[in-house]
Design brief:
The protein is an alpha/beta fold and 316 residues long. It folds into two domains: 172 residues, Thiolase/Chalcone synthase (Peroxisomal Thiolase, Chain A, domain 1), CATH 3.40.47.10; 137 residues, Peroxisomal Thiolase, Chain A, domain 1, CATH 3.40.47. It has ten helices and 13 strands. The chain starts with a strand and ends with a strand. The model has no long low-confidence stretch (mean pLDDT 97). The structure holds oxa(dethia)-CoA (UT7). The site of oxa(dethia)-CoA has 21 residues, from helix 2, helix 6, helix 7 and strand 12.
Length: 316
Amino acid sequence: MSLRSVIAGCGGYLPELVLTNDELAKKYGLDTSDEWIRERSGIMQRHLAGPNDTATSLGAEAARRALAHAGIAATEVDGIIVATSTPDNAFPSTAAHIQAALGVGRGFAFDVSAACTGFIYALSVADSMIRSGQARCMLVIGSEVYSRILDWTDRSTCVLFGDGAGAVVLRAEEGTERGVLSTHLHADGTQAGILYVQGTTGPLRMSGKEVFRQAVNKLSSAVDEALAANNLTKQDVHWLVPHQANVRIIDAMGRKLGLSGDRVVKTVARHANTSAASVPLALAEATADGRIHKGDLVLLEAIGGGLTWGAALVRY
Ligand code: UT7
């Protein structure tokens, strides 16, 4: 009987401090407006890390919530993968720090670097490890503190990002229709210059217009690939849980899939772009509030620096 990686639980965590667009503009003396930010991106506010918050502390809290939701003890976890572009250290990995923070005491831990697509990449690796029998229970976490790598004088980027973490527990199950159906990863390193972090500490630089121009085409082709690989059509999709960078990109993807607005999970207005954390945060929110049910077909997609992009289909 073939093994499947089933999402047994999920959780999200956002730092306490919330800044509205107006508060942000005022705090950093930016020549911008609430109206511009809302109209161009859909963002109304973002959570920002406090002095003691780190990718480890945010990720560990999201992971605790995901484990509690799954009813699984930390000591049952075989492996941890963290998607992050803002690790606390070059090494040890954020995953190793989180393993210690949770008291897992066994197994393996490593980070994946694929910017905003990081969670899809991490999910793909974890799914492969579970299917091949290398692990039976894994934590897949996206955790980011982009506030530490932003140029707070650059209005074209700093208004777009926020901090936070999301996590899922993947568990091996046999003889089930549920679980990760397939993942589809892409990268085009020749496009590195349109979205990158200078050196290892920043700041982040982005040609937003150019990323925007490529986003819908690349996401659409990854989504088509995911559906075709499973002999499914867009009519089969119950929920789109997209990367949360810009509501205009999210709505365009919803329209391409023919999904009504209430079938697309959106957190960008309240969280802004939390990079690798955005998909698991959105998934956790839509699970906790009862929107996504067991058995629903859930489509995940993301695009980010690299360029990297990808999609995953999950029978919830
Ligand atoms: O998560 C990784 C993937 N990232 C993305 O998917 C981001 C993709 N890009 C975007 O979401 C959008 O391109 C942005 C939200 C970044 C920008 O929206 P846009 O409609 O593409 O605006 P634009 O860059 O063309 O800028 C329009 C104008 C410019 O002024 P001029 O040249 O027309 O005079 C900018 O200088 O808006 C100006 N501008 C601002 N004005 C007020 C740029 N940032 C701001 C700002 N406030 N914060």
